[in-house]
Task: structure prediction
Amino acid sequence: MQIRLDRTTRVPLYRQLADQLRRRILSGELPPGTRLPPERRLAAMLGINRSTVVSAYRELAAEGLIAGHVGRGTVVVDPNRADTADARANGVPWPQLFAPLAAALYDPALEDAMAASARPDVISFATGQPAPECYPIPAVRQLLDEALHREGPRLLQYCPTEGYPPLREAIAAWSRAAGIHCTPDQVLVVSGSQQGLYLIARALLEPGDLVAVEAPTYVGALQIFRALGARLLPIPTDEFGMRVSVLEQALQHRRPKLIYTLPTFQNPSGITLSLDRRRRLLEVAARAGIPVVEDDPYRELWYESPPPPPLAALDDAGIVISLTTVSKILFPGFRIGWLIAPWPVVQQLTLVKQLVDLDTNPLMQWAIWAFLERGLLGPHLEELRTTYRTRRDLLAEALRRELGETVRFTVPAGGLYLWCLLPDEVRVRDLLPEAARRGVAFAPGESFFVDPTAGRHWMRLNFTYPNPPAIVEGVRRLAQAITAVRETRTLARHAPAPIV
Ligand SMILES: Cc1ncc(COP(=O)(O)O)c(C=O)c1O
Result:
């Protein structure tokens, strides 16, 4: 394929590449079904970074011109496909009108993992969901009943954008018990911490701004930052969390607009930032005047001993915005989370939230308030810790039994995930379709890194959603899939060279 890139113009290389591919697709030179070269190969052919090719492919995927599939690569889309034909029937080429948002969401491996996960015959280690068997449904049913009976229409009206005032007070009190000095007006209730993260990013970032993130980190955060046009600065992690010394060095010549971190039972790695590093991170960030976003959904889910204090509790400089959610400790369906931040930040984010959804569902806010006020959360957390500790240990045991030295992992001290390293000859891209065929799904490591190649041998296994028999059977299927991929690779290595 002839592609000419001009390094002397100001047009970014990925745009030039996307433009040339688009022209050929639209002219029919690359007809539907044409398989585009794998990202790495095209990057090598053109002498550019793989991330440049990834960005170009993302743009074309967002326009509906190409689609990526694990196992089949990236393919030019058939314009007669039902959805494309529908778009034309409406008189406008919809996919080409969209702003480049969907490009940030282009992650075929993750899409395939989630699609497999949704199949009823598949045991899913892929999601980030709590155990549905532990949802306190009778208590919630009673609270919702009481809410409608006592408060009636009031909870079906709009409520203040900042949140239902009694809930803000209860959250402030709960946070103070965790050592975070805050008042109710520093609390902003949000519709899930994903929304909180979006509000923060929307309020603080402009296209081109740099955001420091851990490598690996939460995929939903990467998507938001990318969607808003931010550039990402990955900071490596080890068994004590983010390597703050590397961040410190980077700050000598780079200036991120914010630092995004998951210091406690990280998603996906399960790692917790040590107390020393927490203090160091805050010192470094305060000296440079850079806000720190502490995303903290897993803090209460500890299985040995409570984790070190949140960054927000150690922050004397007013630089931390902390985010929490009930999604992991109760259930995700209510869409209730909150952030705690210095008051001017809450004020600004409230303006942004007004644009997004006016307010968070007051009925659900009332139920969470009552759950906290009546002391129901403490015993519920105790039950979760016991259930999840057992499931975590069961998963670790099953992996050791079925796979022995083939996989490497550290048993996490809390959270929902076990982060697992596969042998060199097993790439998650090859394993995903094989696993799906055998009825098991996991989250591919590539999705959690700024540079996806860093995650090609990692998989994230959730141990809270599948029940114990499913965990045991799921690992058995996974082990079979890994063996099958290894055998295929070995056969491929020993296949006779083609006679040319
Ligand atoms: C680190 C992190 N932040 C945010 C979220 C999203 O949470 P919510 O359901 O509250 O939007 C998740 C969910 O997996 C997460 O792991």
Residues 128, 192-194, 218, 220, 262, 267, 295, 297, 325, 327, 332, 337 surround pyridoxal-5'-phosphate (CB under 6 Å). The radius of gyration is 24 Å.
